[in-house]
Amino acid sequence: MVKVALKGETVRHIRKKILYPRDLIARRVSQIAKDISRDYGDREVLIVCVLKGAFVFLADLTRCLDLSFSVDFIRLASYGSGTETSGRITVTTDIETPVEGKDILVVEDIVDSGLTLAFLRERLLRYNPRSIKICTLIDKKSRREVAIDVDYAGFVMDDGFIVGYGLDYDEKFRCLPDIYVIEE
Ligand code: IMP
Ligand code: MG
């Protein structure tokens, strides 16, 4: 149990329990990296990491890849301070690399409603990439509001709000090495 102050409110008690321990995460990340390396082979890949949540996953994933790639970052905002999507997505920091003709691999933390990735996919497609694939650490498949094909997923889960390994609850808990589910 930890105490956190959310957006300057009074301190609240958050109860959480481990869902995916670090050794299990490491095994899945290394397996996904193998699949990605095998599938792209000799092709040069532009990895587009969605900030902020995917930064820890990206760091581990890229160090397991046997592939020629470059990395760029985009920051999309869709969440307020709660645990439900607002449905409004904005680009707050954009990638700098030209996308045209490239094989793009989007690296995301969680696909939930799918609204964020549907938006990003549409936006990238406007610049005529050669291909777009999606890699997410967590796929909350049953919560989709729009169809999104996930090409690589670390874990599929149904319900619950999770933190740690880059994932936050109101900017808290990103640096926990394991993934926890919040029990509120
Ligand atoms: P979507 O647009 O509903 O698919 O929202 C996806 C984004 O919501 C993810 O990239 C996360 O940043 C955030 N998100 C969804 N579920 C969780 C969660 O359980 N913990 C932390 N962030 C989450
Ligand atoms: Mg995200």
Helices and strands, with pairings:
Elements: E1 2-5, E2 11-14, E3 16-20, H1 22-40, E4 45-51, H2 55-62, E5 69-79, E6 85-93, E7 103-111, H3 115-125, E8 131-139, E9 152-156, E10 162-163, E11 179-182
Parallel strand pairs: 4-5, 4-7, 7-8, 8-9
Antiparallel strand pairs: 1-2, 3-11, 5-6, 10-11
Helix pairs in contact: 1-2
Bound molecules: inosinic acid and magnesium ion.
Word description of this protein:
By secondary structure, the chain is of the alpha/beta class. Helix content is 21%, strand content 38%. The strands form three sheets. The chain has a six-stranded mixed beta sheet with strand order 6-5-4-7-8-9, sandwiched between helices. Strands 3-11-10 form a three-stranded antiparallel beta sheet. α1 packs across α2. The structure holds inosinic acid and magnesium ion.
SS element count, helices: 3
Calculate Rg over CA atoms: 16 Å
Helix and strand content put the structural class at: alpha/beta
Bound molecules: inosinic acid, magnesium ion
Give a brief rundown of this model.
With 184 residues, this protein is of the alpha/beta class. The chain contains three helices and eleven strands.
Summarize this structure as a short list of keywords or feature phrases.
single chain; 3 helices; binds magnesium ion; 6-stranded mixed beta sheet; 3-stranded antiparallel beta sheet; alpha/beta; binds inosinic acid
